[in-house]
Sequence to fold (167 residues):
Amino acid sequence: MTERICVARIGAAHGVRGEVKLWSFTEDPAAVASYGPLETQDGARQFEIEALRPAKDHFVARIAGVSDRDAAEQLTNVELYIPRTRLPQIEEADTFYHADLIGLRAVTPDGEDIGTVAAVHNFGASDVIEIKRPVGDPLLMPFTDATVPEIDIDARRIVVVPPVEIE
Fold:
């Protein structure tokens, strides 16, 4: 499992006082401000959210030590991580962090290898699982009980029922 989890991404500068657009990847998007200091993937830089307010499809955040537009612009596209140990434990069966699914082998119910889970997306309607195949385009499927009836984190695999014949 991943030691660091990406919980947000900084977007463009917002205004002239150093605020930035922020996209949260947490279940409760506003909770991103409560996870303590956020870090770059390599842990070299830390960021603390001083203020957070909702906007259209993102938040506007004030980051400690960022007081002007130039400093805010230098943070564009920085992904923010936390150590996995700061995430709450999942108590519900069949509930997973997306990071735990990435890298799992995807197989058919007959055991045929399809590929590897590359990502879990949500474009607004529901989750979509992306499977990187050894050859060809990635396979995108709804992430439902019907198409993904089994997830075995310990065995590092998922069972996938493709909606059509895979070529």
Remarks:
- The first strand starts at residue 4 and ends at 14.
- The first helix runs from residue 69 to 73.
- Residues 98-158 form a domain with the SH3 type barrels. fold (CATH 2.30.30).
